[in-house]
Design brief:
about 400 residues; alpha+beta; Aminopeptidase; 2 domains; five-stranded mixed β-sheet; 15 strands
Length: about 400
């Protein structure tokens, strides 16, 4: 069977690549309302593609972006559910792309474009694996359900609500999450755990209106400085998060896990070179892979306030920051959210402030950060699927094995 499947893939590789590029050209940016039509068109495109393979496929509208559900029976009563998402993140900043983000381009055998590895490339790999099996064997060895959402990158809850309603109908024997990677091109991996995310937004307001810093500076607190001081106190210089209760209920790494990670011989210098930073940084006492895959983190995703135009405008403005806590499974979402907000407010409680910050959760969307293990050779036939038709990278610049050390990437 393997020889026939691989021969089919080789014979159809160019078509696979072109179809993937069609998929990627649709700017399905779920976070921006101007792309709502594109997001729906993308959902319809992949649903139609699955219909062409004999699946009963359609869109589920339950509020929010549509969910693609496709079902096909197999030779056994067993059922595998394949999860993925067809939406992508905004393409900003555009000046860091060497080629247009929604015009997929192959350079040196690598496919560049938004969504190529998060998550259209992985979804399409599973679709083409199913196609190869159907075309060479005639049937699938088990039932397959594709469940593809359009809100993974924007914090929507449509999928969670649908699964809650349809859990008795779905009843999979196994779930495959397509939104992950191998350790590198030669090392298969099994993803066996996830980190989740809680996104927060903090706003510090000062005077009721913008006032001139030359006239009022020194007499009132500057909200931008207050916010910067507040955020700086959340994490120590050595990378430890200082928010009370932040590490409560975090699942510790087991000795066998740490040993498994060390065996991968991860190259810190290679990652630093790829990212063009002088050195890596993070929580002391843990290796890089342990921090990336298994330790919680507090990250600032954006900070903005004040005049952004040309030249200068001497004002004392309000300021807003967006942050995210990414925590290992086993820690509930409510507690860290409350402790983060209250801690931020406490740290901003300063007599120099003219008004309190207003921290609030922005979303509680599930997102994936993974622990991975190199897969023993005996597992390879279980977890392997036909490889993507060409290597792909959705970051706008460099590529290579070092990038694949992280199970997910922050710039996609």
């Amino acid at each position: 069977m393997t020889d026939r499947v691989e021969a089919y893939i080789d014979a159809n590789q160019n078509r696979f690549v072109e179809e993937l590029m069609q998929f990627m050209r649709i700017p399905s940016v779920s976070a921006q309302e101007k792309h709502d039509g594109d997001t729906r068109a993308c959902a319809q495109w992949i649903a139609d593609h699955l219909k062409g393979l004999g699946f009963e496929a359609g869109l589920i509208d339950i509020g929010g972006k549509p969910i693609v559900r496709a079902v096909r029976k197999g030779n056994s009563a067993k059922r595998v559910l394949i999860y993925g998402h067809y939406d992508v993140q905004p393409e900003d900043p555009l000046d860091q792309w060497k080629t247009p983000p929604f015009e997929p381009t192959i350079r040196d055998g690598i496919l560049y474009g938004r969504g190529s590895t998060d998550d259209k490339g992985q979804v399409f790999t599973h679709v083409k694996a199913v196609e190869a099996l159907l075309k060479t064997e005639g049937e699938l060895p088990c039932g397959v359900v594709f469940l593809l959402e359009g809100e993974e990158e924007s914090g929507g809850d449509a999928l969670a609500r649908y699964v809650s309603q349809a859990k008795d109908e779905l009843k999979p024997d196994a779930v495959v999450i397509s939104d992950s990677t191998m350790y590198d091109a030669n090392t298969p991996a099994i993803t066996y755990g996830l980190r989740g995310i809680i996104a927060l937004e903090f706003t510090v307001r000062g005077p009721a209106m913008d006032v001139h810093s030359g006239a009022y500076g020194g007499g009132i607190a500057n909200p931008v400085l207050v916010l910067a001081q507040m955020l700086a106190k959340c994490v120590s210089p050595k990378g430890k998060v200082l928010i009370p209760h932040f590490y409560d209920e975090v699942v510790p790494l087991q000795p066998w896990e740490r040993q498994s990670f060390r065996k991968l011989k991860f190259d810190d210098a290679a990652l630093a070179k790829e990212l063009n930073v002088p050195r890596l940084h993070g929580e002391s006492g843990y290796r890089t892979l342990e921090r990336l895959w298994a330790r919680p983190t507090f990250e600032i995703n954006g900070i903005f306030g004040g005049y952004q135009g040309q030249r200068s405008k001497t004002i004392i403005p309000a300021c807003t920051a967006r942050a995210a806590t990414e925590r290992w499974s086993g820690s509930g979402p409510g507690r860290p959210s409350r402790s983060t907000a209250s801690s931020a407010a406490t740290r901003a409680s300063d007599p120099r402030r003219s008004s309190p910050p207003s921290p609030r959760p922005r979303s509680r969307a599930a997102w994936w950060r993974t622990r991975t293990r190199p897969a023993p050779a005996t597992w390879y036939s279980i977890i392997s699927a036909p490889s993507a038709p060409t290597r792909s990278a959705s970051k706008p610049t460099s590529s290579g094995p070092a990038r694949r050390c992280c199970s997910t990437w922050t710039a996609r």
